[in-house]
Every structure is written in structure tokens, then in C-alpha cells.
Amino acid sequence: MTILIALALLAAFSASVYMLSRRRAVALAEGRSASLHSLPGYHGTWVALWAGVPAALIIILFAIFGARIEDSALRAQVPAAVAELPAERQEVFWSDASAIARGQTPSEISYQGPIGEALAAKTAEARRLSVIGLVSVLALSGVLALCGVLLAYPRLSKDFRARNRVEGWTGVLLIACSTLAVLTTVGILGSLIWESMRFFQSVSPADFLFGTSWDPQIAMRSDQVAAKGAFGAVPLFVGTFLIMLIAMTVAAPVGLFSAIYLSEYAGPGTRATIKPLLEILAGVPTVVYGFFAALTVGPSFRAFFNWVGAMLVEGPMDPLGQYLMTVQNQMALTAGVVMGIMLIPFVSSLSDDIINAVPQTLRDGSYAMGATKSETVKRVILPAALPGVAGALMLAVSRAIGETMIVTMAAGLQAKLTANPLDTVTTVTVQIVTLLTGDQEFDSPKTLAAFGLGLTLFTVTLALNIVALGFVRKYREQYD
Amino acid sequence: MVTSMTLQPPLIRTAAPHSHNPAAVEPSKIVIRDVNVFYGAKQALDSVSIDIPGRSVTAFIGPSGCGKSTFLRCINRMNDTIPGCRVEGAIEIDGADVNDKTVDPVVLRAKVGMVFQKPNPFPKSIFENVAYGPRIHGIASSKSELEGIVEASLKKAGLWAEVSDRLNAPGTSLSGGQQQRLVIARAIAVNPEIILMDEPCSALDPIATARIEELIDDLRQQFCIVIVTHSMAQAARVSQRTAFFHMGRLIEAGPTEEIFTNPRESRTQDYITGRIG
Q: Given this model, what pLDDT does residue B209 score?
């Protein structure tokens, strides 16, 4: 709360500095605004930035890290009574001390005797520390704001290049934002690699990458020695690619053809109706697709295959019939088909944009040669749009590989090494979810396996994207 | 005054004597009567009538937006591809109306080739660009015949010497002027009777323009060529007949020499001398 008030005051201060400096610049111009190097607004902005930004940075940094600094200062001296406690109880003591100091509800443990005194002493210290921290940061930011004004304001003159200086600040802001994005990526990747290393200390990478049996539950129960072979990721990747293939078999042709229809054949009215409808399909949450798959598509597929099986039983194809009779609700086909339906608007919307971007002159050229619409699409428009369409399909593949909800609900959880679309399979993402839901221990291979899977999936997706980009680039060189 | 003009007989009379232009004795290839074109409610062309002779070059000139490109696109029904565009009137090629219900625009466009303002080679190799028309119309019955057609078309378009060693290079790798000649080769590969050119040199430099103009002059021995141009100098150089359009109307048409030296209409004179446009 205090922090917010401080920031608001700072903003008000900067605003008044802006007005003041702007007026100063106007005064410097002596009525001829063209005699200034920069517009008065730039002068105002520049001084206001110096007044506001460094002080605001200090306050924000304090808001983020202040509590942690105060906490470590509080723990610098451990009272003798506390040092005797077991480690978990020490943690509770420290958090109780901070909680009481902040006026929050502490744990229900009662502290008596020397430990009670220690708690009272530490609570008082925590209060004192937080006041000291807040006051010193507010004072520091106030000094910074004043210094900023005092240093910047006197530099204003007719020839002062305030415009270029403000441009410099803009550059810094933009760089800061992009650095933040890059650093986040690096951080995620770093943690992924770090935790995976820990996982690969207990399970060898060869077993993980080439093992054909996935059963992390066994590893939990038995010793780590028995864990060998239980973390073979091959069935998961096979399952992932099987479902991705089924999904793309549905999404690629249907999405592409509807994009062609929308951009080349549909009249303006039809287009105005169908395109929003398709985009609604893209807005359906995947969990809705998930229960649609589990409750509607799965049972009807099962009914259909069982019916076909019943027809074949006792005929020349009896074994196939017997098998089809045993097909269950959960199968790769259900998950794949529903995922494909989910990807249709994604593919069609991207491809539609790409096909529309093909220059009209190419269409005119083809029609003027006496080509029909479908000849034009097949021989001119699709070849011209292919790099973009390939990119769109690769994006769809990435989404299919990363999709979790539909598969969890419709394909089962059993890691089977099979290419049979009527069997239950499981995917990498589903297993990551299963590994990390419920109680977790962060040093068991079971939990760390999630990071191993995540890293492998990341590598595979990255490789796919690189291959796709290479393909697109090669094609561009040839035909652009 | 303008309305009365449209009631007059068409100005280009193929039978009219023109000692300067032997091509003018060719009979009319395209006969157009009272053509109106509308984009939605907006009228783009108003009662245009003209006769265009075969085996010669007819140039359409006029200020931007005067309807000359729209008119050109009526001849091969390219306006069909523009939503909301409506064409009225009679456009006859060799006596057959192109807008007749029995006419398939696909067949018509094989007979009436078109070259556009911006070179628009397809994203294919040079060979495949020229082979495009013969392939879709099934003109060549064997690979060697197709190769023969491609070679002959490229030779006619004056491009063979420059590309014969790299027929598999993409069409877009050529220079602008070469691309435009490639597009002309593509148009003549299906052996059309008429070639429509919509400002074919406006995106080219003077040297490339000169090459295309030479090519147009060669091609007129074999084809009926209609060219829309912004450059009056180009119209004077390449055409035997010129038609001047203004504000959606055909103001005057006749032998190029007469139009440029002794126009009948004052507006033609004003345009040619640079007072309007």
C-alpha cells in the first residue's frame, strides 16, 4: 500500500516536473518555437524521465526483493533457543515471526519459555527492519528523483537535443522489454536442462531415449536399481507421433481445402459467414474438445467398430472381428480425430491469410491463359503459397505435439508401444501431467522424469521447426 | 455533344483508305457495339463502339481512370473475375459474341491472350511458365512437341538466346524486361489470335521498353494486338490505329498518324498536346 502511494506521488512529481520543464523550454524559445532544437514537450519528457524512472526502479526493486532482504537480515542472528529446534520447526518459527510482525495470522503452535521470548524479540526486530527498509528506500528514491531534476533541468537550453535524448530512452525501454523475453526463455531452458541433468544422474540417457517400457510407478515402489528400464520414453514418443499423424491427416486436408474454398471460391457473403464460424471453433477450450472426445466420439467409434466386428465374426476374417469386438472407448483414433478437428480452424485461418497474400496478378495471369479455377489453384496459387502453407502445417504439428487435455481424456494413460490407432496410447505431455499432479518429491526420478520428457519434447519440436524453416527458405530461394 | 457521338457510326473503319498503313486493309477482327460496363452502380464505360482490325496494333490512350483497361478486359472476359462487374453490349470476335452463353471463357481466353502491366511470371521455371498454357489446354501430345512449342514461343518473344541455357531457372529470376517477354512467350505459346496488352511497359526501363516495342512490331505480322498505354510516344511508335478514351467514353479512333497529327476532336488534341490528362 505504502509502495503504491509512493509510486503515485512519484508520478505526480514527474508530471509537475514535465510541466515545469516544458514551460522552461517555451520560455527559452522566446516566442519563436522554431528556434528550439526540440519541441518543448521533449524537454519536459526528458527531465520528467530523469525525475521518475530511477526512483521508480528503486521502489519496484524493493517491492520485489525487499521482503527477502529483510528476512535474511532477520535470520542473521539465530537465538540459542531456536538453534536447538529441528530444521522444520525453525522454518515455522521464522515464518511466524514475520507473520506476527506483518499483522497476519501465525501458525497454531504456542511458543513458551525462552523460545517465546525469542519470538517476541524477533517479531520486534522484524517490525523494526521493515520500517527501516521502507523509510530508507523511500528516502533513497526521493533523493534520486530530486537529483535527477537538479542534474537534468539546468541542461535545458535552446540547442539542447532533448528529442534525441528521449529517443535514447525509448531505445532503452524497447531493449529492456526484449531482454526480459529472451532472459525468460533462457531461464526456462536453463531450469529444464538443470533438472534433466539431475534426472539423468539416476536414469541413464540411453535407457530413457531408447527404452521401450514406461512405468514410472514401479520405480517409485522398488529401489532405484529396479528403476532401470521403467523410464523408457519410446512408447510415449510413438504415442505422441501416432496421435499427431492422425490429427494432421484430418486437419491438413480439411483445413487447407476450406481455406482454398474461402479465399478462391466463396462469394463475399458466404465468406463473411463461414470465416467467423470457423474462428468460433478455434475459441472452444481444449477441455471441451476433451469431453466431446471422451463422451461422444469415443463411444460412437467403439460402437461402430464393435458393430463391424460383430459382422466379421465367424466369417473369413474372424480374428479381425474378434479383435474389433474388444475395442474400448479410449483409443488413439478418438484423440487424433478430435485433435484434428480442433486444428482445422488453425490451419484454415493461417492458410487463408497466406493464400490471400498471393498476388492477384498471378491469378489474373493464369485466368488470362484460359485456366480454370482449380487449375489456377493447383498450378499457380498453391505453389506460390507453399512456403507459408508448410509453415502453417508445422505450427499445427507443434500444437498437436504439445496438446494435452484431449489426449488425457480420450486416449488413455497406459504407455503401450503400438502403432494401432484403435489401441490406447499415451503421449509425452499427458505423462508430464500425470507425473506432476498430486504429491511430489522434487528429488525422486519420477518427478524429475517430467523435466527429462520436457527437454526431449522441446528438442524434438525445435528440430521440427528448424527443418521446416530450412524447407521454407530453400523453397523461397527457388521461387520468390 | 458526347452523347451524339455515340450515335455516329464507329470511327475506325477498316475499309477506309490509309496509304501509310498497309496493315489497315486487314478486315475487322473484333467488332464492338454499344458496350456499357458497370462496377456495382458506378458506370465505367458508356456506349463504346469500335472495330479493331486483325494483324495490326491498335493502341488505347487516355488519362488514368478513363476506362481503357476496363474495356480491354471486356474482350477476353477478364471482368468476369471481378465481383460486381457487369458488361452490356455486343463484343464480337470473328462474328461470334464473346458474352454469348455458349461461349466458355476458358476457351475464349486461350484464343485471346493477355499481358499485364506488371510482369507476372508464375512461381515456376522458365520452361514451365511457357509450357503452362499448352499443358492446361492439352496442345502438345508429347514431351518433344511441348519442348518445340516452348522453344518456338521463346524465339518469337525474342528471349530464347538469353534463356536457352537455363530453362529450369525460376521465371522470377529474370530481369523485369525479360520477365515481360517471358509472359509474352507464355501468351503466344497457346497460339492465340488476339493479344491484349495492358500497359506492358509501364514497369520497365527505357531499354527494356524499346525491346518490347520491337517485339510488338514483329508480332503484329501474326497476331491482332490491342495495347493500352499511358505513353503517347509509345502509341505513336507501335500502333497503326489509336483510340482515345476520356471519362468512360470513346472520344475518337482512327489511324494513328491522323490522331496524332490531325485529330478531329478538340479533347483529343488537348490530351495529345498535354492540356488535359
A: 92
Whether the CB of A354 is below 8 Å from some CB of chain B: the reply is: no
Class in CATH terms, B2-6+26-272: alpha beta
Q: How do residues A386-442 score in pLDDT, each as one tens digit?
A: 888 888 898 899 889 988 889 888 888 888 888 888 888 889 998 888 888 876 666
Does A362 contact chain B (CB < 8 Å)? yes
- Tell me whether residues B122 and A380 touch, CB distance under 8 A: yes
Radius of gyration of chain B (CA): 19
CA A242 to each of CA A214, A239, A392, A412: distance values in angstroms, whole numbers, following the listed order? 17, 5, 20, 14
For the residues of B142-209, what is the DSSP string, one character each?
Answer: SHHHHHHHHHHHHHHTT-HHHHTT-TTSBGGGS-HHHHHHHHHHHHHTT--SEEEEESTTTTS-HHHH
Of A267, A363, A478, Cβ closest to residue B170:
A478
* pLDDT tens-digit map of B43-97: 999 999 999 998 999 999 999 888 899 999 999 999 988 888 999 999 999 989 9
Domain ranges of chain B: 2-6+26-272
Residues of B in contact with A362 (CB under 8 A): 120, 122-123
Q: Which domains does chain A have, with CATH numbers?
A: 2-160 (no CATH), 210-479 (1.10.3720.10)
Residue B27 is predicted with a pLDDT of 80
B39: enclosing H helix or E strand: strand B28-39
